[in-house]
Amino acid sequence: MEGDGGSEIKQWCLSQVKGAIDDDVTEADIISAVEFNHSGELLATGDRGGRIVIFQQEQESKTLAHSRGEYNVYSTFQSHEPEFDYLKSLEIEEKINKIRWLPQKNAAHFLLSTNDKTIKLWKISERDKRPEGYNLKEEDGRYKDPTSVTTLRVPVFQPMDLMVEASPRRVYANAHTYHINSISVNSDNETYLSADDLRINLWHLDFTDRSFNIVDIKPTNMEELTEVITASEFHPLQCNTFVYGSSKGSVRLCDMRAAALCDQHSKLFEEPEDPSARSFFSEIISSVSDVKFSHSGRYMMTRDYLTIKIWDLNMESQPVETYQVHEYLRSKLCSLYENDCIFDKFECCWSHDDSEVMTGSYNNFFRMFGRDGQAGVTLEASWESSSPRCPLRPWRVCAGSRRKEDEIGVDCLDFSRKILHTSWHPQDGIIAMATVNNLYIFQEKLN
Amino acid sequence: MSCSLKRKLQSEDEDEKEPKVVAILADPHPAYSLQRETVLQLSLQKLCSHVETALVRRVLITNTLRSIQQELSQQGALIMTQTHSGATEVSWGAGVGTEGSLTPAWVLEQDGELLFSLHSSIPAHSASSINRSSPKDSFSTALSEIEDLCPTLTVAASSTPFSTSLSVAQPDLQCSSNKNGRLSFPAVEMSEKEAQIHTGSNGPCDSAHLSSSIFLPELSLDDFLFSDIDNFLCDLNPCGPNPGLAQGSSSSKVVSMVTDDLLRSLTNQPFKTDLNELDHIMEVLVGS
């Protein structure tokens, strides 16, 4: 394994693969969102067909020591349907762009899911009992003739097979002219933000007929548009603070106490461009594809095309750490521009204790970086070359087209197989990520 | 005349593996120019494709195009800017202070001839690019003109050159589709008589209402975002065998501006645009 001998080197094992194993991938099955809930018990995935599948972790297995429970399908439902905007003659895709869980308040689970235009609040609840013994209804639901009732009884709850129901509790629609790229639940658990290319709106979870616009970067003259919003998130602890990343590689931190419309940022995080690395694609590869606060709220991570940057919120001038995700692609940017891969938006995530960060790459590789100075490691999400409970072997990418064990040439990489969506268990060493249509779950090997 | 020129270029470059030949004799960074041209062409293709593209992509591609165009213009090309009042002012790039003319009148009178531009400062490394060979499609034609370091005009094809007007470089002018056979770039427009004004001895054209600018920065983003892209750029046809004749609804020609004085001074010959002449000029410049 790579890394110094200093800190404990973590090893990862393939735990599960969900989804069809064959190569026959329908467009609708392509996973477009992956998200653990706040306890890690539930794992939600969204796909391009507008469906959400929720997996639930089993209780910790008693037979296998040091093994965490497996994730099994808990609920499947159709979240969004395709719509047609008649005014613009455009189809609105049902693809799920983001899923965000609400912290659990009662027995039911709530999540927000969004496509390009509409956000929905879903309630996922269990039903394992049902009332029996109605006076006016038969068991199959038919109504009795009231005159035939001679005695009264109190209905009682009887156990039944567990049924998981998902019901849409709110539909937040018609607030976004452009495509929604982010949603983020506030720490006050009452409000959330939704961001599209040019605007960010603040919602109250209870009200669907109004939202407040808090950021608007649309120029009066659209010809002057040179920058769009690409990602946005609320601070995990300060309910007045949020950030948004832009296509020019900058991140703005805004304080909602300062003004109703937060067009003036409170902080601007921007790293000066390295003139020696300038190319035609400098701006495109600097575009922020994801921004995530650390759990502590002290740091913020941004993902652009080639790097991960960790920012200290107290220092705007430059990141405190920069990790090269796949620097070997820098010489291939022209080809990646041609095949549009340069526009791929990779997500990134923090470990539960903020000591590691993880992000996806091409060829079904994903990268993990320890923040304590360990070198990054490249692992592969592949059900063919991994066996459960066997630690993943790291890969190296070299120049040219060599391919041998544990090493692969840049020219052999498969750019159609990419890991864009990743999520880290909030409390444990479990990571989930989506390849094109499979969900991979890896567990940290406990020694 | 130009058709034979075109064919000649075509045949010359047929053997080239790379259809887009950067025939810059003195360019020390041909790879860079080649990549720039590739990126330029890719960007235009992406923007003009009929597939609906996300706003963020369109913005990024447009910004890339703009930066390339700025780079090209900063390499010393003649830049003309249109002020709000409509008067034209001339600015020279790359610190070249030569008082040059704009397109000489006789040039404009050429019947559909393709002209080649020379960099006004002609430092060793910034030679002009000879018109690209064998444009396989309209994009190549457009791009080859863009690649010329001097600004280009687009001229609607018609039986007499410049008898029809082009569309003006108004910054907020929307791209308009030409129903009557003219190609219009929003950036470039000149009225018929204005085109006749330029001579070598005139100074920077106060009187020349010729305005041409490298059209990309003048493009309204709305052209790509909101307008009907079909009629924009995609209607370019390669210069046909008779570029001087009206070729239907969407043929176009491109005229490059040359610096008359400069050429005269270099070649000491009556200025004549001819590929052979240009080769000779280039040889003189390069000193080969």
Overview of the molecule:
Chain A: One of its GO terms (cellular component) is protein phosphatase type 2A complex. Chain A: Belongs to the phosphatase 2A regulatory subunit B family. Chain A: One of its GO terms (molecular function) is protein phosphatase regulator activity. Chain A: InterPro entries: PP2A_PR55, PP2A_PR55_CS, WD40/YVTN_repeat-like_dom_sf, WD40_repeat_dom_sf, WD40_rpt. Chain A: It comes from Pygocentrus nattereri (Red-bellied piranha). The complex is a heterodimer of chains A (447) and B (288). Chain A has 447 residues and is an all-beta fold. Chain A is built from two helices and 33 strands. Chain A has helices spanning 282-286, 333-338; strands spanning 12-18, 31-36, 42-47, 51-57, 71-78, 83-85, 90-92, 98-101, 109-114, 119-132, 156-172, 182-185, 191-195, 199-204, 212-216, 229-234, 241-246, 251-255, 267-269, 290-293, 299-303, 307-312, 321-324, 348-350, 356-360, 365-370, 377-380, 396-398, 403-404, 407-409, 421-424, 430-434, 439-444. In chain A, strands 1-33-32-31 form a four-stranded antiparallel sheet, with no helix packed on it. Chain A has a four-stranded antiparallel sheet with strand order 2-3-4-5, with no helix packed on it. Residues 1-6 of chain A have low confidence and may be disordered. By secondary structure, chain B is mostly helical. Chain B is built from eight helices and four strands; from the N terminus they run H-H-H-E-E-H-H-E-H-E-H-H. Chain B has a two-stranded antiparallel ribbon. A two-stranded antiparallel sheet of chain B has the order 3-4. In chain B, helix 2 (30-48) packs antiparallel against helix 3. The two termini of chain B are 27 Å apart. Residues 1-26, 78-138, 149-220 and 226-273 of chain B have low confidence and may be disordered.
